[in-house]
Design a protein that fits this description.
By secondary structure, the chain is α+β, with helices and mostly antiparallel strands. The chain has four domains: about 200 residues, no CATH class; about 90 residues, no CATH class; about 30 residues, no CATH class; about 100 residues, no CATH class. Helices cover about 50% and strands about 10% of the residues. It has 16 helices and twelve strands. The protein is flat.
Length: about 525
């Protein structure tokens, strides 16, 4: 057997039993966070990224969690991208038609159906934002079978790359972390670009937009607090006493909270509105927030028209192009997730239970292309006028089951007749060979076909002389002229000379004979 390598590229032995102990127990301390977004500044954000580049991921992971919690737009577009993959159906197919490969595929299918695969995949798709995601495989031994009891999420902040190019489990006993045992975790990478896993998440791209948007919203809230309420200005006469002035101040303050107050007739209260209110393009805070939202949409979804429609001037065609961009991301995410599940979950399951040299079944998400069947049907209608198209192909193309033999059908055939052109042709060949014992109705249909074939052959033979006479002037014209323009002019002049009477008479007689055959009892053919 060739040397085996795990998902981290480490050489491993072909073991028969998995590691059943739990290596990443979740504790109460895992719920605590340093909340790095509190008082976040550009220099602080740069320091967090520098620490992550050195392998210390805790603060970056906690920051990314807070970004999803605090920014509604960012949470929405990330959820949209994740749920697009989770909404797909999946399938497990055997590597070949061999009975052993089918047995392996059946066992893998049962394993995935027994697990909370949707919840596990939701955690793995966190790699889109954070660059990586880890699940611990909780193995069980049942009647000699290595079975997966649970796929348990490992918080991103418990992973470290300090002094290591591969992920390690951060523990209380080691600041540099401990290596994961072989086939003990599912580690999903997000390959948005080349580079280290900790720098590939889209939230790293969105972090500065998140920061600038928070600045804009904070300044906007401060502006509204200062200038959103009208200024209450009290006026008093020069002869007003100090008691009157104190009463005026108390009345103004009570108007702010109680909207009620008592003042003397010698005083006056004036409400002064803010000189300029922020609205539309005159609101720099909203412009900044909208800009940051659009940039984050581009980073996560690759476009903006499917999320931000306010003030959009894009056409329907532009919207369709943007939708196709989203589909490209969906296909890439689905392929990457399917490869991770196949290589890091199904492979060790098959290796432990069937042997490491067995063929691995295929695991794929079903990506059905959206198609305008009306346009396809119109295309087929045009094509069938130019060339014959098999019914089996049309049934398969539109996902329509072929009618059973003798089943009443609608559409191209009259209601109540069977879908039998191919069947009748087969019966005709078998009848000629003396292989069929037909009932009276089938015999009548076959006889009708035979009579029609004789009629067609007779009409073709009788039409040879008439067709030759009809085309004689045309052949003479072509043989005597060299230019296309002369031939065209000659055809128009020779049209009255064409002998069509004999051919028309032959067609009329064939038509009458066919009608009489139908009236005689062969009308069902």
């Amino acid at each position: 057997m060739p040397q085996l390598y795990d998902q981290f590229g480490r050489p491993v032995a072909a073991a028969r039993r998995p590691e059943t102990r739990e290596v990443a127990a979740v504790s109460l301390a895992d719920r605590w966070s340093f909340y790095p977004s509190k008082g976040l500044t550009p220099s602080r954000l740069a320091w967090i990224f520098e620490a992550a580049d050195a392998g210390n991921l805790r603060e970056q992971a906690e920051l990314f969690e807070e970004m999803e919690e605090k920014d509604a737009h960012l949470a929405s577009i990330l959820q949209t991208r994740k749920l697009a993959v989770l909404g797909l159906n999946w399938e497990v197919a055997p590597a070949s038609e061999d009975q052993g490969d089918e047995e392996v595929a059946r066992a893998c299918r049962e394993l995935l159906e027994d697990l909370d695969l949707e919840g596990a995949c939701l955690h793995l798709l966190d790699a889109i934002g954070k660059g990586y995601a880890v699940l611990e495989i909780i193995w069980d031994m049942q009647d000699g079978w290595a079975w997966v009891r649970e796929l348990r999420p490992i918080p991103p902040k418990k992973v470290t790359f300090v002094n290591s190019l591969t992920p390690r489990l951060l523990t209380e006993n080691s600041l540099e972390g401990e290596e994961f045992p072989p086939w003990k975790v599912v580690y999903h990478r997000h390959r948005a670009r080349s580079g280290h896993d900790t720098r590939n998440g889209v939230l790293r791209v969105c972090a500065y937009m998140y920061l600038f948007k928070n600045y804009a919203l904070k300044d906007w809230a401060t502006f509204n607090e200062v200038f959103g309420m009208p200024l209450r200005l009290g006026k008093y006469d020069q002869s007003a006493s100090q008691a009157d002035r104190d009463a005026l101040v108390a009345a103004i303050r009570s108007l702010g909270s109680d909207a009620a107050g008592i003042i003397s007739k010698n005083t006056e209260i004036e409400f002064v509105e803010a000189g300029q209110r922020l609205s539309g393009a005159a609101n720099p805070y909203q412009v900044m927030a909208d800009f940051c939202n659009r940039e984050m949409s581009k980073a996560v979804l690759g476009q903006t028209l499917t999320t931000d429609t306010a003030g959009a001037t894009g056409t329907y065609a532009a919207g369709q192009v943007h939708q196709e961009v989203r589909r490209d991301l969906l296909e890439a995410d689905a392929r990457a997730l399917a490869q991770t599940i196949r290589q890091q979950l199904l492979w060790p399951f098959v290796g432990f239970n069937f042997g490491w040299d067995r063929n691995l079944p295929r695991f794929d998400y079903v990506l059905e292309a959206e198609e305008d069947l009306k346009a396809v049907a119109e295309t087929y209608e045009i094509v069938t006028k130019m060339a014959p198209v098999g019914l089996a192909h049309i049934y398969e193309r539109f996902g329509i089951p072929a009618p059973e033999e003798g089943e009443p059908v609608t559409g191209a055939l009259p209601v109540g007749t069977s879908n039998a052109p191919e069947a009748q042709a087969a019966k005709l060949q078998a009848l000629k060979a003396g292989e069929l014992d037909l009932d009276e109705r089938d015999a009548q249909v076959i006889k009708g076909h035979q009579e029609l074939e004789k009629l067609v052959q007779a009409a073709l033979q009788g039409s040879e002389a008439a067709a030759e006479a009809l085309l004689a002037p045309v052949k003479k014209l072509i043989a005597g002229k060299a230019g296309l323009e002369e031939i065209r002019a000659g055809l128009l002049a020779a049209f009255p000379e064409l002998q069509v009477d004999d051919l028309a008479e032959l067609l009329y007689r064939a038509q009458v004979l066919a009608w009489m055959m139908g009236r005689e009892g062969y009308g069902n053919v």
